[in-house]
Amino acid sequence: MLTENGQVLSCGSNSFGQLGVPHGPRRCVVPQAIELHKEKVVCIAAGLRHAVAATASGIVFQWGTGLASCGRRLCPGQTLPLFFTAKEPSRVTGLENSKAMCVLAGSDHSASLTDAGEVYVWGSNKHGQLANEAAFLPVPQKIEAHCFQNEKVTAIWSGWTHLV
């Protein structure tokens, strides 16, 4: 839940750290405040076992370990970035040169829409939802503009295993 003041609250299952409260109970029925480094949040999204948020300054945070098992299976021997294994908000690396306006989460993937109309995607690509040939993207990758007929993207949505 995102309040009008930009604070994020979470409740429900925390089995994979998806509530962003690292030392909280495995199940929480009272919404808990999530600390995002004093940043005001403007957009949030929840996947199966992870969540993402974009701040007013355009920084993207992710938490919950749900994508890590998929990443380890599909990228054996490769070290995953910290944001895949964090049980509290962790900055998504690879987006430092962009300003996120919106984030989304599917069951095992995430995406970010920038103020320049660019779409970055990461996580599982099992169903081709990341517009890429790789089975798993451990770092955010931009979907090339030609995929959008070179138009600026103004909105994105995610289903369980697809993007629109």
TrEMBL record:
Protein's name according to its UniProt entry: Secretion regulating guanine nucleotide exchange factor
Coiled coil: none
Ranges annotated as spanning the membrane: none
Keywords noted in UniProt: Repeat
Per-repeat ranges for RCC: 6-57, 58-116, 117-164
Cited InterPro entries: RCC1/BLIP-II (IPR009091), Reg_chr_condens (IPR000408), Signaling_Regulatory_Domain (IPR051625)
Record has Transferase as a keyword: no
PROSITE patterns: RCC1_3
Repeat as UniProt keyword: yes
Taxonomic superkingdom: Eukaryota
